[in-house]
Amino acid sequence: MKNNKGVTLIELIISVAIIGIMAVTISHFVGSSSNQFRSLFGNASNQIDSQDLADKLGTLIMGANRGISYQQNGSFVLNDAVAKGQTLSVDSSESQKAVSKGNNAVTEKQLILYNKDCIHRIWWDETDQKVCYSLQTGRIQEKADGTGTEFITDSDETKPAVLASNVTDFAVNLAQLETSGIVKFQFKLSDTRDKVTEENVTVRNSVKVNLSEDDVYAKEDLSADTEATTET
Fold first, then answer.
1. CA neighbor of 166 nearest in space, from 52, 35, 71, 37
2. pLDDT per residue as tens digits for the range 109-137
3. Which end of the chain is more exposed for a tag (fewer CB within 10 A), N or C?
């Protein structure tokens, strides 16, 4: 005789409870793994963005051959750092100056790299939290009145390009540029747990420091260019 005994109510309740417990456990495991993956992916992405910005800035700074200047809100600054109340480690009396403006908020910082045939402009805006870049090509030639030389632009400045977004602070230190040829820069990206990226770049050429465009190009020796053109 066949046993047609079905599932009792207690057995059914126990089965449903076990399935529920398993579902909650699996759901928690999947959610935890997903959050961990997103966190790791976000950190990796930030590290890539940070290294990419550092590489781009380093290449541009290294190639400067006429002058380098750094400004905050339009005023020249020799030594700056992103950490409030702290300075970069430099052997200079300037290391105690103008690191934090206190109540005088710095809303824009600009690094200008002067070259023989172009000018690179890199700036950070506090509101947009972006590091942007533009290029202006040109040439150095004698002034019409014969009082010196100047930089003549060939065309309009290129449309600004964004080098990096979500940059919460940016700073440049030129205190060692004249003595050692070293430029230090720092920046901080959001979602990096306040980690500050700092790079030291050795400039290949002797350059003028914190001068206006007119002063950088004021007394250029064009005799070498003239001789090269004649030989050609």
1. 52
2. 999 999 999 999 999 988 889 999 999 99
3. N
The residue among 87, 59, 80, 92 whose CA lies nearest residue 124 is: 80
Pairing mode, if any, of strands 67-72 and 208-209?
A: parallel
Question: What does the mean pLDDT of the chain come to?
Answer: 79
Contact 38, 30 (CB under 8 A): no
DSSP secondary structure string for all residues of 115-156: -SSEEEEEEEETTTTEEEEEEEEEEEEE-TTSS-EEEEESSP
Judge whether 99 and 87 are in contact, CB under 8 Å: yes
Give residue 16's pLDDT band: very low, low, confident or very high (50, 70, 90).
confident
Contact criterion met (CB below 8 Å) for 160 and 133? yes
Identify whether the C-beta of residue 121 lies closer than 8 Å to the C-beta of residue 136. yes
* 0.90 surpassed by pTM: no
